[in-house]
């Protein structure tokens, strides 16, 4: 029994870590640019596929670093060329745009890499289990969680202590004032979009080692990420962080008791939050509402 | 965006009468053309290579998009989850026919009520949200419905969808309307339901309530200062739009004798939104035109290539970047009234 619980708790932590990475990227873009990035799951898949292509030549570790940066670069191109034009319009346009982009990217991935799943090779050291007793925990799972923790701490430190990070946070609260103070908001948004895409790309590389590659690999993560943002409260990155961990763990613990309700529990939590605390757990009243 | 309603300018009397005649013509001509085209579909559609069921599909999805547009275009509130109410309507009708009674009107009533009431309940939870946050909540709720239909295998048929039901003949006392075959008779049944629903929508939009919704769209803060209860109006608009979309959903179930989880999926919500935007979301008939273009394109492209997703995706991006006003919106813009 203890093993079952432990197994599901680690699963929950890992799934929650993916939700967190995805949702933080989505949340960054949502807060500053007021855009729901439907294509976020496809940027994730792109990260995985790029790592798959790069790994034979520059090795797994190189791909782990280069692939998210390439995804960020592609994000910059999309943002600069197209998405930027719809920022100041009704939100319906940015939603439709990223929705269409998601279709194109998914179809392109299917066209280039095929509709079937591909395996992602891992360095031998990561593929081993911790011990015979804890056979279900490989080093890779520990490694994933560690990378996510480091990334999240890095992101929060970046937003707190660097000049650009401060500007991003200020822009979330009052973009007009930030622009009036002479900051190039357009570039700030591009940079912010790139950071969001990079987080998606990183989750893609990590997810590829866990579940393998397929063109729809990001789809299952997109909806829980939305829900993590709603639960945590729009406008609050800390809220998104807790929201992601909460639904990951809740889903995993439900699996122990009643497996078929594991997804339902996420939705139940969301409805409860909307009912009891409509602004979200850590959302501020008036933000984005 | 749109021209303010009811600006009075000084125009000489003669010119004014001419203008009134011209504007009456401008107002009624499209309506006459649309209804004539819809009624004559079984005559002209086969000539251009279509089939009557395709026209039925256009009307059903067009009705759903017009229902959504009450909220999107006329109240200025974005729902990206209207497939939920469409699908609930479809499942409501299908489940009623399969498990409860073999009656088409009762099935439609049940489906419409199921979708509409779900909209009322959920709308009350999120009505204080605005913009993208509102949209995100509607998406999430849509996914709940999708998830339930997908995983409740025994009752809804799960991923394979709900089968084993079919539309029943409708009895009017002595007369019986047999709509069980897929031909022109069922098409005219859809046209009749569509006509009733669209007439109700038209009355609603021209009523003081409809004007209030447009006032909220144009300037929410000012409307609030005028004493309009914003939340209640948005909630009503959301609920009414859900009822219309659910009604369209029941027709969809009858049209296919089938209801599947994809009728609840957020992709379909996206299709409804693009229909409204592509046709012109600030116009009454725009969503119907958008639905026609979308359905025909999808039917054509998916028969041509397996990469139809790319084409649909590019269409989305293209419309957003270059035709944000939509087809009818551009037409109105070029010839301002």
Provide structural commentary.
The complex is a heterodimer of chains A (289) and B (337). Chain A has a single domain, classed as ABC transporter involved in vitamin B12 uptake, BtuC. Helix content of chain A is 75%, strand content 0%. Chain A contains eleven helices and no strands. In chain A, helix 1 runs parallel beside helix 5 and helix 2 packs across helix 3. The longest helix of chain A is centred in the N-terminal third of the chain and has 42 residues. With 337 residues, chain B is mainly alpha-helical. Chain B has a domain of 217 residues. Chain B has a two-stranded antiparallel ribbon.
List its traits.
heterodimer; A: 289 residues; mainly alpha; ABC transporter involved in vitamin B12 uptake, BtuC; 11 helices; 75% helix; 0% strand; B: 337 residues; two-stranded antiparallel ribbon; 72% helix; globular; disordered N terminus
Secondary structure elements and pairings:
The complex is a heterodimer of chains A (289) and B (337).
Chain A: H1 2-33, H2 40-81, H3 91-113, H4 124-127, H5 139-161, H6 163-173, H7 175-180, H8 185-211, H9 219-232, H10 237-257, H11 264-276
Chain B: H1 13-39, H2 41-44, H3 52-72, H4 83-100, H5 104-126, H6 131-151, H7 153-156, E1 170-172, E2 175-177, H8 184-206, H9 208-218, H10 220-225, H11 230-256, H12 266-279, H13 286-304, H14 308-322, H15 326-334
Antiparallel strand pairs in B: 1-2
Helix pairs in contact in B: 3-8, 3-11, 3-12, 3-13, 4-5, 4-6, 4-11, 5-11, 8-11, 9-11, 12-13, 12-15
Summarize the structure.
By secondary structure, chain A is an all-alpha fold. Chain A has eleven helices and no strands.
